């Protein structure tokens, strides 16, 4: 009994030890289970707000270069110079009469044969101009500014030739026909209004003819003016023009042509509006996108 009892006692102790170890393991497992069973929640990434720039509207207007700086400078130099040349030329014209002491201050006329429609110019015109007895004043201004007019004109012609600008200025085959339709359109002719303006580039047909003609008229004024200014030294030129009186006659009517061009040109600028005038000051013209695209397609 003693031996078996001791063995049974040892067995009981061993069972207790084993049961104690098992209890500890169960506690460790129970302690670990909550951690193992925890649901891992992924971190929520909050996206940064996207800042979108406001949509830029497509431009409806464009600044398009129209006139170069050289053209603008020579244009605005020529305007006052030509005005002074015409004014001083009229002061010189006042002091003449043909035949001598007949038709004083009214040398040239508009008429056929012996019939005269009008003589240029009436007395009231000279009073407005304050021209009487201003012959020396006219000569002084005319002989001074003729050099500025000549230099500016020659520089402009050289620029047209070198830059290739003459291609957009010189008339084309259809320019004369287009000029008729443009003129009728400006006169509000019903048929021309229904048809619309002809296709054009920088200049329309009427402008091509007028601007090219004004260059030739400037050259003619220089040639005839030189023949009058130096009839002896440049006698060959004076003779080629038909003599002194014929050179004067040509010079006078070229001047009247400048006056007519000036009136029409200013009127057209006023009708065209501020945008057209601004282009000769700043060099750029405001054009609509659709208008520009249609012009490019027509070209």
Descriptive report:
- The chain has about 300 residues and is mainly alpha-helical.
- It has a domain at about 60-85 and about 145-299: Transmembrane di-heme cytochromes, Chain C (Fumarate Reductase Cytochrome B subunit).
- It has twelve helices and four strands; from the N terminus they run αβαββαααααααααβα.
- The strands form two sheets. It has a two-stranded antiparallel ribbon. It has a two-stranded antiparallel ribbon with strand order 2-3.
- Helix 4 (about 135-165) crosses helix 8.
- It is elongated, with a radius of gyration of 48 Å.
- The model is unreliable at about 1-10 (pLDDT under 50).
Secondary structure elements and pairings:
Layout: H1 2-37, E1 61-65, H2 69-94, E2 108-112, E3 115-120, H3 123-129, H4 135-163, H5 166-169, H6 175-186, H7 190-195, H8 205-229, H9 235-240, H10 244-272, H11 274-282, E4 284-288, H12 289-298
Antiparallel strand pairs: 1-4, 2-3
Helix pairs in contact: 2-4, 4-8, 6-8, 8-10
Q: Main traits of this protein?
A:
disordered N terminus; mainly alpha; two-stranded antiparallel sheet; two-stranded antiparallel ribbon; 299 residues; Fumarate Reductase Cytochrome B subunit
Low-confidence blocks of residues: 1-12
CATH superfamily of the domain at 61-83 and 144-298: Transmembrane di-heme cytochromes, Chain C
Rg calculated over all Cα atoms = 48 Å
Oligomer: single chain
Strand order of the largest sheet: 1-4
CATH class of the domain at 61-83 and 144-298: Mainly Alpha
Structural class label: mainly alpha
Compressed to H and E, one letter per element, the order equals: HEHEEHHHHHHHHHEH
Approximate helicity band: 55-70%
What is the strand tally? 4
Number of helices: 12
CATH architecture level-2 label of the domain at 61-83 and 144-298: Up-down Bundle
